Amino acid sequence: MTPVSPDRELVTAYAAGGSETAFRALVTRHVHLVYATALRQVGDAGLAEEITQNVFTALARKAPRLAGIETLAGWLHRTSILEAKARIRSELRRDRREEMAAEAAALEREGTSPLEALVPLLDEGLLNLRAGDRLALVLRFLEERSLRDVGLALGVDEDAARKRVSRALDRLAGFFRRRGFTVAAGAGCAALLASTAKAAPAGLTASAANAGLAAGGATTGFNLVLFKLMALTKSQTTVLCAIVAAAPLAWQWHANARVARQLDEVTSQIKSTSRSATELEAQVQRTRDALLGAQADNSKSAARFAALSAQRDRQAPRPVYRWDDTSPLARVPKKLLEQLHVPATANRRGRLSEQIREVLQMTDDEAGQTQWAIDRFLSDYHAALAQKMRRVEPTEQDLNGHKPEETRVFDVPEVNDQLKQFREMLFADLEATLGSERSQLLRKALGEDWMPPELDYDGSNSGWAVHNFGYRLRIYQPVPGDRSIMEDLVSTDRRLRTGVPIALDDIPDILRVHIQDWIALAQSQPPKDTNAPK
């Protein structure tokens, strides 16, 4: 293998003179590292090529600041990761990691190597290492350099470089173990690093070099000036600083003289206008006195009008309500509404029922705002559950006469701290939309069939979509043609238990992703006719 020549000479040649030959040599040396790193992050070859060009464009622009670095491998690896991460939304990124952990666990149970599942986490693990350890692994495995070349880059001998690489592999394995993966310290991480080295596509070297030179060409003059400034001696730098410092002083002297002349002019204008201001102030005072008098007269008139209105109201008869056979509505006392049981929602997904809309006399706009508040509350609650919910193997008590493959079990811890905040936000939104009286009636209706009335409520309801306790959830495989799936919920302290069929449309998204195959099975045949004779 060709010995490593310092990148510093090539960067210096490009930064000082804009040498295209030096820049193309840099791209040729490191393009495979940048492309493989980007491909691991985004998983798309076309996007990885675009990221590779962006990285070398950044190198061209920042060449003067990188002229003192012995090797660019570490800087290019970190820049590739940052450029790739800027293209990925953080939410999708977390979801992908959770899915990878589940897939890796499944691969381990099936006896399959989990190295492929670890590839997207590799670069994050490298970034968690110290700069020297990360550079050692990048040079040794991602750029396939010899231990001698690694030692030269780190300033140590070959034996010390070997120990440095071994220690870095151990720390990388520790990173994976802290995230729940079992990886052999030396051989496992070495195999993972070696397997991810990817050659860049043909033509990418030329396109990346052209992109970088195009971006660097626009700033070549500035780069040259910056590089020359960095090369000045201390004496030259002192003289240059003195000149630069003197220029603002001279400009400040002229500015002060100009300001002094303007100040004299403004002073004369102030004197000429002060007399007008005195007269204007006297006029304002007279206007203020007149306004106060008008306000006093207006207050007296308002009091008189209020007295007359009160007298009229006492004398006018109150309207009498009479039953109207042609009207779909009837007037009832508000106290009676507090005793009625009106369902607030039509399903477990929180859709407002027509009955509650009519009883509370919601306008279309009020109903839309109320539905939005309930949907946001349920979305936040499910997101909090998704962070803690985990699937577990069924026990004998979980089967209830079903086969293990027909049973899926989930442990769902309580999330009352977050649930308290979500409830307060929901009730505040309801009061802002419906007012105090109607929001209290809706809150009572929600607490009867859809969610616990209070966080410390000691009980449960089979129709609840929200729970204030941790529980163990058992799902049983449906029969083709069913339009519901049986769920069995047992609280963590085993004091509460509910077992009810849940309609396919009411299954929340956090559970739907785990039983999508069973949902497809239930929908594989037309629905059963429950009214057909047996």
Which secondary structure elements does this structure contain, and how are they paired or packed?
Blueprint: H1 7-17, H2 20-42, H3 45-61, H4 73-85, H5 90-109, H6 115-127, H7 131-142, H8 147-154, H9 158-178, H10 187-196, H11 204-217, H12 220-230, H13 234-315, H14 334-339, H15 354-359, H16 364-388, E1 390-392, H17 396-399, E2 407-412, H18 416-434, H19 436-449, E3 471-476, E4 484-491, E5 497-503, H20 509-512, H21 516-522
Antiparallel strand pairs: 1-2, 2-3, 3-4, 4-5
Helix pairs in contact: 1-2, 2-3, 2-4, 2-6, 2-11, 3-4, 3-11, 5-6, 6-10, 7-8, 7-9, 8-9, 16-18, 18-19
How many structural domains are formed by the residues?
3
Q: What is the share of helical residues?
A: 55-70%
Helical stretch tally: 21
- What strand order characterises the main sheet? 1-2-3-4-5
Number of strands: 5
Amino-to-carboxy terminus distance? 80 Å
Which descriptor suits the 3D outline?
Answer: flat
What is the N-to-C succession of helices and strands? HHHHHHHHHHHHHHHHEHEHHEEEHH
Largest sheet: 5 strands, antiparallel
Sheet/helix structural class: mainly alpha
Strand content: 5-15%
Uncertain parts: none
Q: Assembly type of the shown chains?
A: single chain
Based on CA atoms alone, the radius of gyration comes out at 37 Å
How much is the average pLDDT?
82
